[in-house]
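Fold tokens
===========
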Amino acid sequence: MNVALIGYGKMGKAIEGIIRNHNAAHSNHIHVVHKFSNSGTRLTVEQLKDVDVAIEFTTPLSAVDNIKLCLDAGVPVIVGSTGWYEQLEEVEQYCKEKSGSVLYAANFSIGVNIFFKINTLLAQIMQNQPQYTLSIEETHHTQKLDAPSGTAIKTAQLILQNWSHKTGWKLAPTQDSNAIPIIAHRIEHVPGTHVVNYESAVDGLQLIHTAHSRDGFAEGAVTAAKWIIGKKGFFTMQDVLGL
């Protein structure tokens, strides 16, 4: 399998390390045939002609152009960039028009996707307990450009689908009592922590996911890249994990 890494920052290098580990343990080697930095130079379809799957971790500003370029080239693309989801419907339509393959996720960690599933189930229970207030808290490294994180937004969206007391989410501080407040912290060298807090006058309930390194995200992205080969459509990590 030939892979192009679109975005060769810290995540790109972590993915390359996971691929190296895979090749050391398995005979079906994965070959990184291109490593494109996010230098502002636009990629071309020609550059992707020998690629089986692309893994994209760049920025909110360049992600959509990179996805469309992969679809133009007929290359399935795994998208780890966040902050571009206001264009999600546009990208899904483009994927359909090109009969292509896109898999996006706010977070590729297996643990986070289980965290999503548990939060969905927990919201179904907690919506019958109005004495509890709800907030979401996320902490990431200072190089992260978007806030709140895509993972925090995805968590809020899943809760909102199952908890009728709120109508949306807002970055804290907010005076909107109908919104789930999301508190964002930026601290050096923190890969990513997400906390869902339910608080009442008599007790509190927390659900926490803590990433210890970027390797969990990178491992999930490589798993998704292997999974999408031979498939057509618009997918998420939930499809990969069968959640």
